[in-house]
């Protein structure tokens, strides 16, 4: 379960969502894109999700951020954990490109932890896939197999499990990675002051998807078909009790629901749900360009750069004559003839008109109008 030379196909075939592994030298000559002081600065911001987990004399505590000071909470062996750092730091967002063979909609976030010697969060399991890149320092990782483990809650913000038998017990150095599938118990203990970068992938249950689909509230009730009995006598016999729901009726109700799930509106709502990232609402990123401004800048050779953390999604096969894509729950619709140009824009960090996208597209007012909207919202920026 130790990979010394990473091969994408081998990893997806043999390990992804099947079994854990260590990937040695996954990132050659790894340089930390952030240090513990910058991480602490983020943990002081109101909109950033952070916590400190500490263990002193065998007693576990956890404190939710934001933090004004750290002296009173960084006690004993402690770890500072900050969620969604990829949404704020461009160089951290770039780490997600290391796993761009996994689609955008599966990516949750990059959580970064800084730990002092002996620190960790205890043995536990997660409900998602995670690749953890070792930054500076070193950490010992133990990973086991799924099982019926006794859960304990040493603090309201902490869930741990009893000891497990590890099938992996290795020390990671900068640039190494541990991959842990869902439900596999694991425990990481810092051997020195160290940074870790956890790239998490969401794996929603069918119930979570169904609930989220309804919560999107983007299916027009007026177009939702109302249930009809059709041939009631064909569904029920003369002797069927009135309180009974027979199998034919249940099948018909399921078909009724399937009609909704298979509709174009439901597909739209599903993609909208999958696109949600919780991007920060930063007024400083917003702009007030006109269509003429943007067209002029692009004609002058200015590039379009996707902002930090923006992960668009779209259906590869589109049903209508409009191309629809989604960013953080917002939908954008353009003529299907612009699909190729927008696919280039959505799938690349930086795009130059005339090089990556044909300059003729600037004659299309709809293209420039949507690009202007993306810039003014703060999803893209003009880059000299």
List strands and helices in order, with pairings:
Blueprint (H helix, E strand, L loop, with lengths): L1 E2 L4 H7 L6 E3 L12 H7 L7 E7 L2 E6 L12 E6 L7 H4 L13 E9 L13 E6 L4 E5 L7 E5 L2 E4 L6 E5 L4 E4 L5 E5 L3 E8 L4 H10 L16 H4 L11 H15 L2 H11 L16 H9 L3 E4 L6 E2 L7 E6 L2 E6 L3 H8 L3 E2 L13 H13 L2 E4 L1
Parallel strand pairs: 1-2
Antiparallel strand pairs: 2-12, 3-4, 3-5, 5-6, 6-14, 7-12, 7-14, 8-11, 8-13, 9-10, 15-19, 15-20, 16-17, 17-18
Descriptive overview:
The model has no long low-confidence stretch (mean pLDDT 93). The protein has 384 residues and is α+β, with helices and mostly antiparallel strands. The protein contains 10 helices and 20 strands. The protein has 3 domains: 200 residues, Sandwich (Jelly Rolls); 64 residues, no CATH class; 101 residues, 50S ribosomal protein L16 arginine hydroxylase, Chain A, Domain 2 (Malonyl-Coenzyme A Acyl Carrier Protein, domain 2, 3-Layer(aba) Sandwich). The strands form 5 sheets. The chain has a 9-stranded mixed β-sheet, with helices on one face. A 3-stranded antiparallel β-sheet has the order 11-8-13, with no helix packed on it. The two termini are 46 Å apart.
Task: For this entry, give a set of tags.
384 residues; Malonyl-Coenzyme A Acyl Carrier Protein, domain 2; Jelly Rolls; three-stranded antiparallel sheet; alpha+beta; nine-stranded mixed sheet; 3 domains; 10 helices; 23% helix
Biggest β-sheet: strands ordered side by side in the sheet: 1-2-12-7-14-6-5-3-4
Poorly predicted segments: none
What is the highest CATH level, the class of the largest domain? Mainly Beta
Oligomeric state of this protein: single chain
Q: Please state the CA-atom Rg, rounded to the nearest Å.
A: 25 Å
CATH architecture of the largest domain: Sandwich
What proportion strand? 25-35%
